[in-house]
Amino acid sequence: MYCIIVGGGNVGYYLTKDLAAAGHEVLLLEKDRGRAARLVEELGEMALQGDGCEVRVMDEVGFGRADVIVAVTGEDEDNLIVCQMAKRKFDVPRTIARVNSPANEALFAQLGIDTTVSATRIIFNLLEQEIESDQVVPLAALSRGNLEIVQVDLSPQSPVVGQRIGEVRLPAEAHIVSVIRSERGLLPTPDTVLQSGDSVLALVHTERESELIGTFAGA
Asked: CA-CA distance, 28 to 3, in Å (whole number)?
């Protein structure tokens, strides 16, 4: 399967690595030159600098032979353009779009996007179901972009391995909402002990993202 991912943020980065590890042909497009350069340094030929909304770029990277196009930029408008062009001009069999604002989910479906993924909606539903009512983060706050959903993979060198979640000193405005262990999602408690190989999914204020990653990954 040839998959093109547009958007080199955390979602695009980890998705690229996972698809490549599964043996698929994958290309990650990122329009910001600085970030693209860092991605190319780490991922090699799997990453490329380019604006995935431009038809010229789409043609050059092979949208016409792609099996799946995944648009996971931080802008809903860009994700919609990418997927619509993939469908209408290049006849891509399947398109998947990240929807940052839940209010746009219905619009994306009406315009023919095969699959939409709203991380905000997923995390909000999880919070609503599993956290006491006075602790739930308002959906409006997520929709305005004040918070990011961050996944951090714990290596054996991570300073938090072996600690209970309740012992981890999180940045202000950060909350652990799930731990993925052995391909199973866990609903964490303060007594959950973090292990090497865990993937920690957290909500954090955008200004605190790097601090959160440093907490789990170390300096």
From this structure: 9
**175's tokens:** 């909350």
The 3-class secondary structure across 77-127, one letter per residue, is HHHHHHHHHHHHCCCCCEEEEECCCHHHHHHHHHCCCCEEECHHHHHHHHH
Question: Token pair for residue 37?
Answer: 């350069």
Contact 86, 58 (CB under 8 A): yes
- Phi, psi dihedrals of residue 155, rounded to the nearest 5°: -95, 170
Residue among 4, 74, 8 at smallest CA distance from 41: 8
Q: Which residues, including other chains, have CB under 8 Å from residue 79's CB and lie 6 or more apart?
A: 6, 7, 71, 72, 73, 97, 98, 99
CA 111 vs. chain centroid, Å, equals: 23
Whether the CB-CB separation of 140 and 119 falls below 8 Å is answered with no
CA distances from 22 to 16, 19, 81 (A): 10, 5, 28
Helix (H, G, I), strand (E, B) or coil at 4: strand
pLDDT tens sequence across 140-180? 445 445 666 777 888 888 899 999 998 999 887 788 888 88
pTM of this prediction exceeds 0.90: no
Q: Name the phi and psi angles at 176, rounded to 5.
A: -80, 125
Beta bridge partners of 149: 203
Mean model confidence pLDDT for the chain: 82
